[in-house]
What we know:
Layout: H1 4-10, H2 26-61, H3 68-99, H4 101-119, H5 125-153, H6 157-169, H7 171-188, H8 201-207, H9 213-219, H10 227-233, H11 249-271, H12 276-279, H13 291-319, H14 326-346, H15 353-377, H16 387-403, H17 405-414, H18 422-444
Helix pairs in contact: 2-3, 2-5, 2-6, 2-7, 2-8, 3-4, 3-5, 3-16, 3-17, 4-5, 5-6, 5-16, 6-13, 6-15, 7-8, 7-13, 11-15, 11-16, 11-17, 11-18, 13-15, 14-15, 14-18, 17-18
Amino acid sequence: MVDVMSQSVLDEPVARTDERHVPLTRVEWLVCVVAALGFAFDLYEMLILPVIARPAIATLGGFAAGSREFNRWVGLMFYVPAVAGALLGLVGGWLTDRLGRRRVLVWSILVYALASFVAARAVTLEELLALRCLMVMGVSVEYVAAVAWLAELFDEPRRRERILGVTQSAAGLGGLMATAAYGLAVTFSDRLPAIVGSHDPWRYALLFGLTPAVPLIVLRPFLPESPKWRRQRTMKRATRPRFAELLAPSMRRGTLVMIVLFACTFGLASGVLLQTPRIVPGLPELHTLAPRRIEQVVSVVQFIGELGVLAGRLLFALIVLRVASQKRLAHRLFAAGLIVIPVVYLVGATRGVVVLAVGVFLSAMLINAPISLIWNALPRMYPTALRGTGEGVAYNVGARLLGTFAVVVTTQLANVMPGDGSSAQLARAAGIVAIGLGAIAFSVSFALSDSTQPEFAFE
């Protein structure tokens, strides 16, 4: 029987040294555009929740913001879909190795787009929660399939790193779209057709999540499958990926490191950064404003935060080819985050809109640059036959099961924190969570490889 790790090197063709300077073909451009579209709407679906959580829960449940029941539903809306997404994501990674990268990517995008469309018509919190689970399931599968797909379509290592970095930077556009969609909905919802007899802005923001399904249906026939996956499919062993193979000594340590780093970075994103829309309304300078005006301020601050997301992704795309050691780069990013993010939420979050907005921009940048770093390193850790399965385990266990639990910790910690009002309590809780997760990420980053050379060579 052929050894999977040995075969992973044999089945990868040697890259041409001049491939970095060869222009992308039309098909390669199409692949990059579709992947970028998927990354953008992945983040749209994830970041629309913190924007709409407060008005949606208030509308469907009638709970006052900051109450224990309200906080309980916030925790449920964030964590239950994350668990559902993690469980399906594990299976989705395995299916990516069995059925192909392109097929799984396309169907996962269609699932979350249609679920978002139906969620706009939810009439109970239970319905919204169930449909939110479907959205996160689709996102959890799509990202894994897209990264494996891109990584295997480009042979030259430096080109592959650049394309992975640049296409992932499109995720920042998803955050901008989420805040822009909600801001426009708040402004113009009264002029739009009613949804379930109402003009609630959060419903129109969910409705926009259907957008990627339309171009995807048109472009699907022109998308190529990964040639490396096709070659592996002809091998009997490669068509039956096994989770137990991830426990092999050559992969076990790296997988555990990635799980912890995913848990910390996504914990910072969900348990700290994504709580900002619920912190903004408690700022003293907003107390005299009308509710609609407050929602517009929330959208502006969130929009600035999404600019930070985009800046973080672009920052990584610019420096990934200029830093020889991913360990050194990770140290610097996590050290900066460990200092900046807690200060923003423990000190700056109650100082005013401008101070908070600047702090959120910096925090988003220092969270998302390491996320891109982790995703770029992840495909190199596994052979072709196990790439989807390995990515699915590291991402879904780390980011979904463990990382998103930070929301539960933050919202429950906010109930017992001192502070003048629920927003101040939430900000202090987020700051404490940021200290803990930042310290863990910085410590574990010392276990990363010293260089960017792959453990399992693509070339």
